[in-house]
Structures are given as C-alpha cells and as structure tokens.
Amino acid sequence: MYVDREADPALLVCQVGATRLTYLYRAVDDFAAMLRESGDWMELGAADEQKPAKDGTVEAWGRAESNPVGGWYGQRKGYRGRFGMYLPPLLEELGLAELEHKPRGNRIRAL
Q1: Considering only CA atoms, which of 79, 83, 93, 98 is closest in space to residue 30?
Q2: Is-contact 41 109, C-beta < 8 A?
Q3: pLDDT tens for residues 49-73?
C-alpha cells in the first residue's frame, strides 16, 4: 500500500498482484476516528463490491451513506469493496488499532 498524493483527492493505493484497488486517503483518519468513537470491537466483514456487507461491520461502514464521505471510500468501480480486508491491517501497522488474527471472524478496535 502507498499514498498517491498526485491524485486529487489523495488516494491510498493497494496493489494485490495485478489488481490495483484505490481508496480515498482520508479513509485512514476517518476510520480511526470512527473506531475511537465506537470504543468497542467491530467485526471486519470484508466483501466484494457486488456482495452486500453485513450490518455493523467495517465493510458496511466503508460504503455507508452515513460515513463522512457519504458512501464508498473505494474509488475504482467494480473494486470498491474489500475495505474491511485492506484497511484494518494498515491501521494496525500504523499503531492506530488492535486487530484480531484468527482464521475467521476477525475484529478490530481503536488503541
């Protein structure tokens, strides 16, 4: 993952093999703030754009009309999902959140 500051607005780029996913860079701060406000564990619920996100999950928040950008943080049509897969490990790496590492059903919370 890296930040494309040349883009307007800045984008967080996630390269997975030949697939390039992009999310609004502000998602990092927005997501961390939401976790701090929630104060509890939140299920990740990663899902492709074409699949519905489970209510109350990170994935659902990353595409909800009630989030700070009013919808999808993902920017590439067809690849806007998977917010709940790629953003939580980044927040953990940045020291902003604690992430479970179980085979399934992982959760995240703010530090």
Answers
A1: 83
A2: yes
A3: 999 999 999 999 999 999 999 999 9
Q: In sequence order, which residues have a C-beta less than 8 Å from that of residue 44 and are 6 or more positions away? A: 57, 58, 59, 84, 85, 88, 106, 107, 108
**Are 56 and 42 spatial neighbours (Cβ–Cβ below 8 Å)?**
yes
Which tens digits make up the pLDDT trace of 11-27?
999 999 999 999 999 99
Q: Residue ranges of the domains in the chain? A: 28-110
At 108 the three-state DSSP class reads strand
Q: Which class for 102: exposed (0-12), middle (13-18), buried (19 or more C-beta within 10 A)?
A: exposed
